[in-house]
Amino acid sequence: MTPPSDHLIELSGVGKHFGGVIALADVSLHIKQGEIYGLIGPNGAGKTTLFNVVTGLYQLDSGSFDFAGQRYTQCKPHLLAQAGIARTFQNIRLFANMSALENIMVGRHLRTRTGIWGALTRNAAARAEERATVQRARELLDYVGISSAHQTLAKHLSYGEQRRLEIARALATEPKLLALDEPAAGMNATETVALKALLQKIRASGITVLLIEHDVKLIMGLCDRVAVLDYGKKIAEGAPEEVRRDPAVIAAYLGGEAA
Amino acid sequence: MDILFQQIINGLVQGSVYALVALGYTMVYGILGLINFAHGEVVMIGAMVALTALQALLAAAFAPVLAVLLSLLVAVVACMALGYSIERIAYRPLRNAPRLAPLITAIGVSIVLQNLAMMIWGREYHSFPLPFNSISHHFGGAVANDVQIGIVVVALIIMLGLMWLVHHTRMGRAMRAVAENPAAATLMGVNINRVISVTFMLGSALAAVAGFMVSANYGIVHYYMGFMLGLKAFTAAVLGGIGNLRGAMLGGVLLGLIESLGAGYVGDLTGGFLGSNYQDVFAFFVLIAVLVFRPSGLLGEKLAERA
Question: Which pLDDT score, from 0 to 100, does residue B275 have?
């Protein structure tokens, strides 16, 4: 059976284990084109593992993974990036000793072509592409609201700015799906509000967003649908309000005290 | 004073060669964390290929300048192919192995290349048929010939070009990204295997140029010439801070100067007890001193230049 065509991502029966530890067990879910999809669950529930499967850093042990109508069950990360999946990390992984602008320019790698010969000969195409890359990188810095920091080394940016830079770098790959691993972690209330506005802007531009987050207010206010993982299993899925009232979720996520 | 000036010239020439070879070590280390001990042999193969090409071209009555340039080009292309093959055959299958495995493999590759060269080119010393007279120029009391001036100038141009490549091109950015964070780089769509191949090919191209320079300067080519040169260049890379491009250049030139000044003055300083044949001792004395007092090298902390 082919999945409905508005499903950007289709996971079915996905399993992943590390030795004897089962990180994901028979997880099936789909993400629709253009939605903001939240993934929540207690620590160690398998959220980041699922992220790593979707972005190709882990190969899954069972089940299948389709993206934009193509099967990517065993696939290298750079090919998935090419297919249109970009992500940020829970613990920020910028190129610390490169400037903010250069970080984004690396993100343009996928959508540019100049090889070593083009670079050495400095032909017209190579020069034009380099100019376009710089131009696009500046636009993206502006888009996420840190345009004043373009020459600053990534490691010297503030925490909130680093998060934004990581999002800009991911956007530079022109993704269909932007996967964010706890983007609000460590942000203060003001920064979180700004982040929410940024994510809404990104979604409005046509990019589907997959979000892992612990900040329940952010998830509830932002996501169209939410899935809850616990011990590697999906225990609930639906609109935020439904999920919040689900007894299984309350038991697992809030420790049962609200039941 | 003249002796001092002369030794500085000699040191700069030798140091330029060390710097080019050290860049090959440091680029590979920056990206893979691997000490490619076969790199010295790539220099030797570059010299050997250049020798054969130059002999053939001169026999075919090519113009001297054209023959020199073409043989250099042949050596560069051959070494790039060699560097690519070494990585592909010997190192890539061990990418995720414990770090000791590729290190031992590197020593193995080095031995294989040496013996291969011995079988092809024989055990004897070949004279390098430079088809023009290298005219000597006097600067005060010191002397530098055309070849020596050419070595320093060409090395400088190549090093500036490499810095530009690494800092201002798409491939250079990809190299730095892989060096800093391979996982993040691959998620940006950077093909790590391709970047590693390019790194080996670039390093090997520099090695070929260095091999040509050494041969032209001393006029002698031998299958064992890469061994000591490789060790010295490795020392230079460690001195500058391995993984750091500017460090490799600085370390190379400094090591050349230290050796040359050391060899020039050790006799006077020890009252003739030690002579200039102790030249090699200085390089390894430097290596030990760096490892003891500053293991990260002179520019070791500034990881910004890693590539």
Answer: 76
- Quick one: three-class SS letters along chain B? CHHHHHHHHHHHHHHHHHHHHHHHHHHHHHHHCCCCCCHHHHHHHHHHHHHHHHHHHHHCCCCHHHHHHHHHHHHHHHHHHHHHHHHHHHHHHHCCCCCHHHHHHHHHHHHHHHHHHHHHHCCCCEECCCCCCCCEEEECCEEEEHHHHHHHHHHHHHHHHHHHHHHHCHHHHHHHHHHHCHHHHHHCCCCHHHHHHHHHHHHHHHHHHHHHHHHHHHCEECCCHHHHHHHHHHHHHHHHCCCEHHHHHHHHHHHHHHHHHHHHHHHHHCCCCCCHHHHHHHHHHHHHHHHHHCCCCCCCCCHHHEC
User: Which tens digits make up the pLDDT trace of A30-51?
Assistant: 999 999 999 988 888 888 888 8
Which residues in chain B touch residue A76, judged by CB atoms under 8 angstroms apart?
186
Place of tokens 């987050």: A213
| Predicted TM-score of the model (pTM) | 0.85
Place of tokens 């020593």: B107
Tokens of B99: 């770090």
Rounded Cα distance, B78 and B202, in Å: 12
* Contact criterion met (CB < 8 Å) for B189 and A109: yes
Instruction: Work out the minimum CA distance from B185 to partner chain A, whole angstroms.
Output: 8
C-alpha dihedral (A145, A151, A155, A159), degrees to nearest 10: -20
Contacts of B187 in chain A (CB under 8 A): 55, 57, 77-78, 81, 86-87
User: Could you report the per-residue pLDDT of A7-19, keeping only the tens digit for each?
Assistant: 898 888 888 888 8
What share of chain B has pLDDT > 90, as a percent? 69
| Touching A: B residues 139-178, CB under 8 Å | 165, 168-174, 176-177
Asked whether residue B1 carries a pLDDT value surpassing 80, the answer given is no
- In a mutational test of the A interface, the residue from B84, B164, B168, B170 whose CB has the highest number of chain A CBs within 10 Å is B170
Beta bridge partners of B137: B144
Q: How wide is the angle at C-alpha B67 spanned by C-alphas B65 and B72, nearest 5°?
A: 100
Q: What is the ipTM of this complex?
A: 0.77
- Give CA B103 to chain center in angstroms: 18
Of the two residues B30 and A216, the one the predictor is more confident about is B30
* CA atoms in the 13 A half-sphere facing the CB of B138: 3
Q: Does B193 touch chain A (CB under 8 A)?
A: no
C-alpha A241: how far from chain center: 23
Token duo for residue B243 = 């993984």
Nearest to B189 among A89, A96, A110 (CB): A110
